[in-house]
Design a protein that fits this description.
With about 625 residues, this protein is of the alpha/beta class. The protein has three domains: about 240 residues, Glutamine Phosphoribosylpyrophosphate, subunit 1, domain 1 (4-Layer Sandwich); about 200 residues, Glucose-6-phosphate isomerase like protein, domain 1 (Rossmann fold, 3-Layer(aba) Sandwich), CATH 3.40.50.10490; about 150 residues, Glucose-6-phosphate isomerase like protein, domain 1 (Rossmann fold), CATH 3.40.50. It contains 20 helices and 27 strands. Strand 18, helix 10 and strand 19 form a beta-alpha-beta unit. The chain starts with a strand and ends in an 18-residue tail after the last helix. Bound molecules: 5-amino-5-deoxy-1-O-phosphono-D-mannitol. The site of 5-amino-5-deoxy-1-O-phosphono-D-mannitol has 16 residues, from helix 10 and helix 17.
Length: about 625
């Protein structure tokens, strides 16, 4: 959470930073700030969004310096207000710092600094850190880089920081442990950011700092990377990124979420491109092939993930057990990491994360590795912490997902997991050649079938308008459609703030049925393949309690049409691919309901795209 942008070079730092903060706003958007250095330092910070900061700067900032730091915040320590916003300035006024993460031993550090006469104006851990660095700098009579290093060795927690010294213009020091930090290397200029999107139009050359590394970034000098622990010099590894500017802009859509919903057919094609040749019966994922023995001899697969990625993991449980006959357990990373789990050396762990930065998933991966498990990562963000921390893995190639509500990440994760299950199922003999080939052919047709679902979005928009005043909703599905129900409910609650529950349809009569009355819209995924008769019975039970029923059905279905208040048709597909189609109308429904309720679709309250704190 929180986005950091820094710049040092020949451009107007203000322009670079404000634009960059807008691109990073998905990481947190409760307050924003900027500090610019020229002959003096100018600081502006405010509760609210980057647009509020921009408005404030129009009247308060005159200094168009060539060095600066900016921050967009998702509050951890201290409520969102002007004072708690970053950047934070040390007591002398010399050091200016932005931070993403949490300093866990902030209180002990604060007590020491208080005794040494420091005063604090905010409730943040960041203000403690900037003063700790200042204290070290003065006490040890060292330069900024050394002071940062000594201070960080006293810190427990997670951080990505960038700091400059007003007395020494021309230098920014950055450091990372647990939170992401990228450095863009341009011609006589450097960019610092939580991801590469703020500077992609200026340079595609990027150095991702590793945990425990710090960078001394000086104008007209080469980039120096050092180990925070032992000061060793580390050769910067400069990567050339493929990201393009079009990918991170709205491209004519009103919201990123809508754009990303519509990008799903292409994102799925991009995910299987070069990995699947359906006509030749070939599936080849190099990360899987290189370690296939681990999977073939796995005692079980454990999936770890959070949120929507966890729902994709639940779909994986059905797919791997169904197609490859490998036992699967799906764990919330946040529970797994703290519950002393039994992990065998022949377990294969699959970690799923769009951002590749989720703190709980990252910690769960480290735990699994410590206990000897082999970890395969499925990430969307190239070069992310999880992609680097896992033994091997595969990228989803969905392209940047900016809307906080995950959409194309979910369907591309399922696509990738399906490819893996198909490959393993074939190799293990769990799938006949004919079935394997039929499934490949069907997977190839999925993007076109999603296009057909997208084509009925105006019908879905109309249905949304009938239920946008609901206060509670129920989502039901069975088998492969149970995770879809969970995902549908999550989409609705996170962007429209309507309470929604996803449930396995058969569990309804063990409790939730008590909630059902004429005021409760019930969304049921009732596709032909997948316990159809059973779900029809569930629909009868709901109908007899007068709830409104909105059903996702297979094209041409007449039975459910006769029972439900509304049906949304999706094309027929293999049961194991139903989630790829059935999740799409539910995304569109949530989008329109949130929009009609006047909610901020791309930046829902209290959330952030990348959850880098536990
Ligand atoms: O980046 P990750 O996939 O690891 O993120 C996990 C969750 O934070 C994420 O899926 C979250 O639940 C989304 N807001 C759901 O739309």
């Amino acid at each position: 959470m929180c986005g950091i942008v820094g710049y040092i070079g020949h451009r107007d730092a203000y322009e670079v930073i404000i634009k960059g903060l807008k691109r990073l706003e998905y990481r947190g958007y409760d307050s924003a700030g900027i500090a610019l250095l020229n002959d003096k330092v100018e600081l502006a910070k405010t509760k609210g969004k980057v647009a509020d900061l921009e408005a404030m700067c129009a009247t308060t900032i005159s200094n168009k310096g060539k060095l600066g730091l900016g921050h967009t915040r998702w509050a951890t320590h201290g409520i969102p207000n002007d004072t708690n916003s970053h950047p934070h300035v040390s007591n002398s006024g010399n050091l200016v710092l932005v931070h993403n993460g949490i300093i866990e031993n902030y209180d002990a550090l604060k007590q020491t600094l208080l005794k040494r006469g420091y005063v604090f104006h905010s409730d943040t851990d960041t203000e403690i850190l900037v003063n700790l660095i200042e204290d070290v700098k003065i006490k040890e009579k060292v330069k900024l880089g050394k002071a940062v290093q000594i201070a960080l060795n006293q810190v427990i927690g997670a951080y990505a920081i960038a700091v400059f010294d007003v007395q020494k213009p021309g230098e920014i020091v950055a450091a990372k442990l647990g939170s992401p930090l990228a450095i863009g290397v341009g011609e006589k200029e450097y960019f610092i950011a939580s991801d590469a999107s703020p500077y992609i139009e200026h340079t595609n050359k990027t150095v991702y700092l590793e945990d425990g590394e710090m960078a001394i970034i000086r104008l007209h000098k080469s980039l120096k990377i050092r180990s925070i622990k032992n000061d060793n010099l580390i050769d910067p590894y400069v990567q050339e990124l493929q990201m393009s500017i079009e990918n991170i802009e709205k491209g004519g859509y009103d919201h990123f979420m809508l754009k990303e919903i519509y990008e799903q057919p292409q994102a799925i094609i991009d995910t299987f491109r070069g990995r699947m040749k359906a006509d030749e019966g070939i599936v080849k994922l190099s990360g899987l092939e290189d370690h296939i023995e681990k999977f073939l001899h796995a005692r079980r697969i454990i999936v770890i993930a959070c949120g929507t990625s966890w729902h994709a993991g639940l779909v994986a449980e059905y797919i791997f057990e169904d197609l490859a006959r490998i036992p699967v357990e799906v764990e919330y990373a946040s529970e797994f990491r703290y519950r002393n789990p039994v992990i065998f050396k022949d377990d294969v762990v699959i970690a799923i994360s769009q951002s590749g930065e989720t703190a709980d998933t990252l910690a769960a991966i480290k735990l699994a590795k410590q206990q000897g498990a082999f970890v395969f990562g499925i990430c969307n963000v190239v070069g992310s912490s999880i992609a680097r921390e896992t033994h091997t893995g595969a990228y989803t190639h969905a392209g940047p997902e900016i809307g906080v509500a995950s959409t194309k990440a979910f369907t591309t994760q399922i696509t990738l997991l399906t490819l893996m299950a198909l490959r393993l199922g074939k190799k293990l003999g769990a799938l006949s050649n004919t079935r394997y080939r039929n499934l490949l052919q069907e997977l190839q047709l999925i993007p076109a079938k999603i296009e057909k679902v997208l084509a009925v979005s105006s019908q879905i928009e109309h249905i949304s308008s009938l239920y946008n005043h609901a206060t509670n909703c129920l989502y039901l599905g069975r088998g492969y459609n149970f995770p879809v129900a969970l995902e549908g409910a999550l989409k609705l609650k996170e962007i429209s703030y309507i309470h929604a529950e996803g449930y396995p349809a058969a569990e309804m009569k063990h409790g939730p049925i008590a909630l059902i009355d004429e005021n409760m819209p019930v969304f049921v995924i009732a596709t032909k393949k997948g316990h159809y008769d059973k779900i029809v019975s569930n629909i009868q039970e709901i109908k007899s309690r007068n709830a409104k029923i909105i059903a996702i059905v297979t094209e041409g279905d007449e039975t459910v049409k006769g029972l439900a208040d509304h049906v949304i048709e999706i094309p027929e597909t293999e049961e194991c691919m139903t989630p790829l189609l059935a999740s799409v109308p539910l995304q569109i429904l949530s989008y329109y309901i949130a929009l009609q309720r006047g909610c901020n679709v791309d930046q829902p309250r209290n959330l952030a795209k990348s959850v880098t704190v536990e």
